[in-house]
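Subject: sequence -> structure tokens, single chain

Hey, anyone have a minute? Need the predicted structure for the following. Not urgent.
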Amino acid sequence: MPQPIAVTSLIDEGVAAQQSGDISAARQKYEAALELSPDDPEALHLLGLIHEQEKDRDGAIRLIERAIAVDPVEPIFRLNLAAILEKNRQFDLAADHLRTTVSARPGSSDLSTRLGAIELLRNDGQAAAAAFQRAYQLDQQNVAALAGFGRAMLLVNNIAQAKRAAQAAFRAAPQDPATLELALRIAGLERDGVAISKLTAIWKFARSADKSSLTDLSNLLFDLGYTNEACSAFEAVVELDPHSPETLTAYGRHCTAAQKYEEAGAAIDKALAIDPHSPTGLFALSRLKYFVGDLKASEDLCGKVIEVSPQFSPAYSQFCTLRRGNMSDEHVAAMNTLVANISTSPDQSYELLLSLAKIYDRRDMTDEAISALQRGNEIGEKNVRMVAGGEFSRVQCTRETDQIISFFQRPAEKRQFKPAPYKPIFIVGMPRSGTTLTESILAAHPDVFSIGELSSLPEVANRALAWANQTGAKTLADAPTDQLQSWRDLYFSYFPADEAAGFMVDKQPINFRHAGLIQALFPEGKIIHTRRNPVETGFSIYRHPFNKQWPFSYQLKNIAHFYGDYARLIDHWEKTLKAEFPLFQYENLIAEFEKEVRRMLAHCGLDWHDECLAFHRAKRPIATFSSVQAREPVRKTPERAALRYIDHLKPLSDGLTAAHVNLETGALIATPNE
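Reply:
Had a minute. Here:
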């Protein structure tokens, strides 16, 4: 039905006002048009866009939905509504509208690309792949579609297809952000530090004046676990915008993650000097205080953030950790409201739900606690599939364990290397098995410096296995000394250059997979293996927030499977490395503390120092979520938190039993045919 002339005129006047930036006048014109014709779809649509500009997203959605009800075949209405729904994290509804739009315009490559992007946000890799494939068939110059197809292949764990798409996209547009993002994600999955560095340099050169793009680069590197590289990339953002409190705060957060605490403090102080009530700035300072050990200041700052901005969800999770779950009913209600809010990010919902579980546990509300854990981990797993690409594969985990055992059938012969800058000590084991306690004991020694959880040895291990695949080598013994020296040099290149301590601790738990490589590359190094009751370890993993580098941590059955492969590998190291791979059972460590600490120091070649018994008094940064516990005296009896939830933990205990794991010690139980 044609519009009355007066309505058409009012709409034209509104569009002109909107284009000139006079939003108020545009609103008045569209509302006047709707007074004359209440169901005019164009006026409804345009007024909806005004509501979106005014940050009334719910009002915008209602108005554009009314426009679509009147005119369901106009693609632009659905396209704009899908964009608003996407911002509102209503991905399913957005996808529905885009599918209808694509059906109406099947020849549009751009629309199919938009649909593919939404399907990625829905974690539907197959649907995303189909949409991107259709877009690329329509326009083979559409690099975004090609890169999107690669992202979809990552989501369904088809790494080979993702790499082919990345290579094709890189040939077509090597400086395109979508191309570089895909390539970086693949390099991150493969822990290829050289590729990460090269791709980062290309991105920074191509987008040297684009603050938004450089911020995206830094955030991606952070998500991939390359915190130093993320911090370095963000320096370019600060150069472009040196007086913005938001930019300074973000840089401070990156520096904190990279354990550059002085730089972090300086950046955050500058930001708060400009905007002293900024919740992001106050929370960034709280995080910094948390890691450097000023827990009282951290707690006070969290409380201030919640007072200033009750919707700032990360503050609740840290406040809960600092207060050990002792939160008020008002805090619980606010946290549940934030979880229910669709604008809360998956990362934040995951952490909020695990924090709520901690609160419920403290209140002996075990049913509510386990329900929060299950909901939180479901969200966490969906999010890791989207951000990190793919999901945990039990088959792949077992295959990798078998490959490591095969490659390190016997200890490597001792080689002569250039002198090391430090004597490395590697603390290895499952997460939540006592690795932070062990690190705290050693770091209290005056001759020891802890560098935290480095990602460099996993990178070296990936290179060693890639070298073996390329050369056909069956064991590490086939590698020439100069090749081993290059991997050794790469590892030490990550270490600080000005530390005076003679011993350096690398507390990366996953290095239990690389004990054979440690023995081959670092004959002067020492390994300390920590182990704890496997049900307690598994449950502790399940109830603590883990980043995207630990994809097994969101399901009890996956935790059990990973633990089973860990136990098999530990059994192999104990047989092949013997005295070079000593066990420190957590329960024994806390029961006979001084005796076990003396054994630990003697194994590392360290003189006795009483400070190691009083590790909790040491003033040093601790960059893990065990920071609170590591600043307290050691318990004399182990926490048995899992016992209260044992009926809910059958997937964990049954999986461990099926993997032949001793449910008390975590050791592998010999099977009859062994």
